[in-house]
Design a protein that fits this description.
The complex is a heterodimer of chains A (186) and B (125). Chain A has 186 residues and is an all-alpha fold. Chain A contains 11 helices and no strands. Chain A has helices at 3-14, 18-26, 29-40, 42-59, 69-95, 106-113, 117-122, 125-136, 139-149, 155-162, 166-185. In chain A, helix 3 crosses helix 4 and helix 4 (42-59) packs across helix 5. The longest helix of chain A has 27 residues, at 69-95. Chain B is an alpha+beta fold and 125 residues long. Among the domains of chain B are: 8-38, no CATH class; 45-74. Helix content of chain B is 40%, strand content 11%. Chain B contains 4 helices and 2 strands. Chain B has helices at 6-15, 25-36, 54-75, 78-83, and strands at 96-102, 107-113. The longest helix of chain B has 22 residues, at 54-75. Classes of the chains: A mainly alpha (186), B alpha+beta (125). Chains A and B meet through helix 2, helix 3, helix 4, helix 8 and helix 9 of A and helix 1 and helix 2 of B.
Chain lengths: 186, 125
């Protein structure tokens, strides 16, 4: 959609045209789903995407068109994901008094990753090791690496999706790569 | 086993895009329309209207009055005011008095001619 066309469409969405809203925002749904998936996990991603779109629908009236629409939507996604994670943590705190410390080794996780017959069939040893190493990375580094290399987002989009600056994204990518390599070589 | 290189890792990361399952469009938008129908869009941001409370208005007036007073006081030249003779009372006998104001040097000269010092009462002025 051209820029002027997009502005008109956004204006219509602001005026309450839900069909135009759907038309404009549908193209961004795969990336929004990917962001939600990385931030809250695949099981809850759909809920976060729906919340994101409902929030965007409500707030599109306030979208001032100074930033890009997709950047704005990725920020909304990030906010919804954070709300979701906070709510989930509250629920977990009520049911699980204390988190168990994960002191598994990389080999243990790799073994677990290979434990199911389906995975053994479809994953190579390298793939399993990389997955296991990714699981050992901290949340921020893993999310940033995956948004970049799995979902192909730009630095600016990752920054909006994770609520940090572009500089932080670059630093997380650099350190994430370094840590991942270190885990895999240990 | 050979050490895993970064390109291998990138390939594996790229393969994980398959983890993302985008909900089917019709189902998603049907649910969205239903739920959006239950909510209202936020009101667009309007220009803020400044409403001042009564105490703020009173305080502003007070500040304005004080400022005006200070401006008037500061503007009036104390030298000029001090040198201006409002009244003159010479108790000693004399023939004439000249009061000369020099605006340029902001000076006032009082010239009393033929004054008899011995006739003066008090301090003689």
């Amino acid at each position: 959609m051209e820029n002027d066309e997009l502005k008109v469409a956004v204006q219509k969405a602001r005026d309450g045209d839900i069909d135009v809203f759907a038309e404009v925002f549908e193209s961004m749904r795969p990336v929004v789903t990917a962001i939600a998936c990385r931030l809250v996990g695949p099981d809850d991603a759909d809920d976060v995407v729906m919340e994101t779109y409902l929030k965007a629908w409500k707030a599109v009236t306030k979208f001032n068109q100074r930033s890009s629409l997709k950047t704005w939507l990725y920020r909304v996604t990030h906010n919804c994901a954070m709300d979701f994670l906070r709510a989930r943590k509250r629920r977990q705190d009520r049911t699980m008094p204390e988190d168990e410390h994960d002191d598994r080794t990389i080999a243990d996780i790799a073994d677990e990753a290979q434990a199911t017959p389906d995975e053994l069939l479809e994953k190579s040893e390298t793939a399993a090791m990389v997955r296991a190493a990714l699981d050992r990375l901290d949340e921020n580094h893993r999310t940033t690496l995956m948004l970049r290399f799995s979902d192909g987002l730009s630095y600016a989009d990752i920054a909006a999706a994770t609520g940090v600056s572009i500089g932080t994204v670059m630093s997380r990518l650099f350190n994430g790569k370094r840590k991942l390599m270190k885990i895999l070589r240990s | 086993m050979n050490p895993i290189s970064w390109p291998d890792i990138e390939m594996e990361l790229a393969a994980r895009q398959a983890d993302v399952k985008v909900a089917e469009a019709d189902r998603f938008w049907d649910e969205f329309r239903f739920r959006a129908g239950e909510t209202h869009q936020d009101a667009a941001d309007a220009l803020p209207i400044l409403v001042f409370p009564a105490w703020a208005k009173a305080a502003a007036c007070l500040v304005a009055i004080i400022a005006l007073t200070l401006m008037v006081t500061i503007r009036s030249d104390p030298m000029v005011a001090g040198n201006e003779i409002q009244s003159l009372d010479i108790t000693a006998s004399h023939s004439s008095v000249f009061v000369v104001n020099d605006d340029e040097t902001m000076a006032t000269i009082v010239w009393v001619s033929d004054m008899e010092i011995n006739d003066a009462k008090g301090d003689g002025t």
